[in-house]
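During the second year of the project, the team shifted from modelling isolated chains to modelling whole assemblies. The rationale, set out in the original proposal, was that interfaces cannot be judged from single-chain predictions alone. As a representative example for this report, we include one of the complexes processed in the last quarter. Its constituent sequences, exactly as entered into the pipeline, are reproduced here:
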Amino acid sequence: MGDSKLDLLQGTLDLMVLQTLAAMGAQHGYGIARRIEQVSGDEVLLNQGTIYASLVRLQQRGWISAEWGTSENNRKAKFYSITRVGRKQLAEDAAYWQRLSGVMGRVLSMDKQGGR
Amino acid sequence: MIDRLRQAAQRVLAFLRKAPLDADLDAELAAHLEFAIEDNLRRGMSPMEARRQALIRFGGVMQTTEQHRETRGLPWLDVLIQDLRYTFRTLKKDRSFTLVAVLILALGIGANVAVFSVVDTILLRPLPFTQPERLLWIAPPNSGHNLSAATYSVDAYEDLRAMNKSYEDVTGYYAFSAPDNVKLTIGNGEPVPLTAIGVAGNFFRVLCVKPELGRWFNDQETRTGGQVVMLAYPLWKRTFGGDRDIVGKAIQLDGKPNTVVGVLPESFDFGAVFSPGARVDMFGPINMDDIRFQGNTLTFIGRLKPGVTLGQARSEAVALFPKFYWGKKYPESLGAYKDQGWPVPLKQHVSGDLRRSLIVLWSAVALILLIVCVNLSNLLLARAAAHNKEFAMRMALGAERSRIVRQLLTESLTLAIIGAGFGLVMAWALVYWLAHQGSIALPLLYSVRIDTAALVWTIVIALATAVLFGLAPAFRMSGKDIQGTLKDSGQGASAGRHHERIRTALVVSEIALACVLLVGAGLLLRSFLRVLDVDLGFRPSNAVAIRIDYNDGNKAEKRAAILQEILRRVDAIPGVETAGISDNLPLERNRSWGITAKGADTKHERSTGNFVYVVTPGYLRAIGMRLRDGRDFRWDDATAGKEQVAIINQAGAEALWPGENAVGRIANTGGTDVRIVGVIDDVRESNVEGKPGVQTYLPTTSAQFGPEDSSLVIRSKLPPGALSADVIRALRVVNPQQPASELRPIQQIVDHATSPRRFFMVLVGSFAGLGLLLASLGIYGVISYSVTQQTKEIGIRMALGATAGRVQIGVIRRTLILALVGMGLGAVASLAVAKMIASLLYGTEPTDPMTFAGVAVLLGLVALVAGYLPARRASRVDPLVALRTN
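Output from the structure prediction step:
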């Protein structure tokens, strides 16, 4: 894929969405997408549209809920918020990612430290 | 896990609520873009640029919607529905193709399901008893269904029960009850003839048939018989209107009250299991002492103790049977049953003989199904050729190969399912018809029905056919190089040769398969004709039989007078050539005794089992048996104080006095010395195909041999209907109690005996016909298609001077080459198949040249016709038109 931007691993988008909602509270799709882009420093290769597949998947699993509402600039939009089950799942997934990235970090830095 | 389930449920819901969800998503995406545009405007972009950037960041509304749908719903089902819609649309457009395809499939699948039901009922399903696998039929080895050779005496029965260690119990039934042997009178109505079977009192307990109402025979009834009966379910329904209070009531049988102690369940059909094609109405307990010296009359059925194997039961039988007496009154009859007891599973006794026939039938329908598949593949290929460009275009536009295969398979599956639906209806009708053919002597046929097993079988078959006939065209179509196809059949080019090669191969295999079927059917037909040609030893045409009834108080003189009177009156009826009476009719039932030739040297007396008939003078002539030597009986034969006489058949004379003249000799049978007064030609007494056994005819005038039943046989050119009233009237003069039975043509008895062979012959024959039809359709299709494809070529050739005749000959030659190759392959396969069915043939060699030649001529003719029609079309091609079109 692109040289400069990160391609998303399967399932990572779901986790990002969950975390965003947990941190920001209820948010609409555009808001979530923007937020992820901002936080990642525009490093993530994200067609904003793909967020909707992720949203419907999380919703079907019962991890987030959705409701039509009005935005601050008075526009109708669908607002998503994380559920109790979603928070639990987020905690699990986050812990898993932390462990995995820790391991990956150690493995990948092995060459420099332990090499001949 | 719960997440997954929840998600699956949500997906189904989402699939069902597609429209509202799509609307929702549209609104959401619209809002998304508005937000983005607003943001961009705020950053100072022009409205145009704001919108463009928003769309770029969003990344395709269509893709997003599609991705959303796939994630939330059931994409495979969406695709399926899409394919189905497309399939239905194209099938509707190609109406004639659809019609032919569905019809062919329906015939193929219908035949398969119907035959499966028959095979399942007769061969696969266990007998309708409790733990039927523990029931054994005990009879001399290889006695088959010839009951005369499969019965034992009462003394042997009692010894077996007492001495065996293998069985929980042994039971049996009286094997020689005549049809319509009792008369039921209700109120003041006319007596109705019914069939009652005597069974050992423990019969139903051993088979473990629980009565619908009432009880089994009790111990006392088992010991002494008695005036009690159990009713068969159909009689109870039909005659007693399903009266649930019938148990304990008395019914009038032969003028005597009999108490009904029980009603048997619907699932129990004695005839279906033990005497195919026969109707049995009621059962009574046998009083063993009554039949102790009647000869071999009891069949043996044993229920194994749990844990005892068939092998153990067999070794026990080998050790035990030599210890039995024919009758303990005669010490010399010890050992009469040496090597005469060989237990086989009851199921094997019931359907063992049919195993091969049924397997042949099954293979025949499997061949039909194969031909159907080949034919459909062919049709689909022809059709696909027409859609060739469409598929190539789709692939050029990016459709995946798997997607196209999937769509083509959906199409064949749809066809198969529709075909299976119609096939099931056909099978149902066929099975219903078969189950109601009382006249076919096949066991359990009445209970043939389309059940769950058959439904599962239908599904399996439908799927298998769909894959078989759909796969080849599907891969051929999708595997094409797109360029070639798009270019192919452009200006001037004829159809792709490769395509046609496959179709040709298919047609050749179709012809070969049809050839195998036809040869099989031809051989069976020849065998059947041979069987019909068998010299039965009597003439069934123009003869009818009726069971008669009279009261002679068991006195021979009185009986002779009554019978003579009956015959005098019947003979006097206009149109009656001659009449006679016998206690048993050939091919219907028999009983057997021993017979011994008397000679000077008692050490070397020859003796043999024989079939015994007690007949009046004139009977032989009435049924059309031929006297070779000596004379018929006279009314003054064997009367009080005179010598006992007998007539034997040729086989009997050969067995007892080989190479000598039997007339005038003395033999001993049934404990009485008789002088042979006549010898007749052999009569097929137990079955049409087997060798005739030894037969003895004894006069009704003799006091020694009481007839048990009497059948009046009348020879007359008049149809039974025209004769009936006069005959009944004459009989009622002698006995007002004579029931109004029907006159049965003797031919009917013969037909009944040959019905299993007829049944298989007709079925295999119709399947072969179907195969031929399908093969001819295949030939026609291929030739016709190739003529259409070559219209232009033909046009050019004709423009260059080829005559119509030459063009015709060219097409027909091609057809015949196809047919010849197919027939060649088919003949080789047929030889192998014919060898396998050799044991089913009668008087016909598996290599019967007549059959093979006939099939070759038939297939050749059919191919000729199938090729001639397109050939004629080809010869009428107008060169101008052909060259101008396209």
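Chain B touches chain A at residues 3, 6-7, 10-11, 14, 24-25, 27-29, 31-32, 34-36, 38-39, 57-61, 63-64, 67-68, 70-72 (CB under 8 Å). Confidence is low (pLDDT under 50) at residues 490-495 of chain B.
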